[in-house]
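lol ok so funny story. i was supposed to be doing the assay writeup but got distracted and ended up predicting the structure for this chain instead. priorities right. anyway since i did it might as well share w the group, maybe its usefull for someone
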Amino acid sequence: MDRDGESDTMEVAGDAESVTEPQRRCIVTGGPLPLSQKIRFVIGPDNSVVPDLKGALPGRGIWLSADRISIKTACQRNLFARAARQKVRVTEDLADQIEALLVQRCVELLALARRAGQAVVGYAKVEGWVRSGNASYLLAATDAAENGRRKLSGIASAPPSIDVLRRDELGAAFGRDSVVHGALAAGGLAEKFAETARRLAGFRQATTNEEKNE
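and the output, tada:
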């Protein structure tokens, strides 16, 4: 049992031993998911619902699946108040706030990777990393031409591609106006970025679907 007073876990069978992976139940679906697929919230001193992306804020956590639909549903059904067992204040643009925070976190992690020499940008440099096996993940701007992405992904043994940030957002991480192609070396920063990007995808994919349906 941890600081949130919860003990939902899952045993994942390994070759030698079982690994216990902490899970939390989404207040919308009721289903347990790994922490990497959820967003933690706490109730602030002013009774406002505060997203806690790093899981560092004090207080009992309220957990939701990391996607826009779950956040909107929780707001519409007053599920935060029910989970907290008290009246709470929820802003109408909570899902947009979380998306912005996730973008900011992605940019911060990429900037750290750049300064550590664990990230490169530019088609030629990225291609070199892919062919040499230095790339753990490819980065592709969501508003980039499909042709360049296909070429890099088509190289033998090309790593998975993460495409959740726009050109300007990738550019902000590398001190440029815009970036189309990038690559990350293996390591802790790359894995933290990949986890944050997966959460962000749950918000941006939903937005794209909503726009198509309008």
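The chain has a mean pLDDT of 86. Helices lie at 68-76, 79-84, 94-115, 123-132, 146-153, 167-173, 188-213.
back to the writeup now i swear
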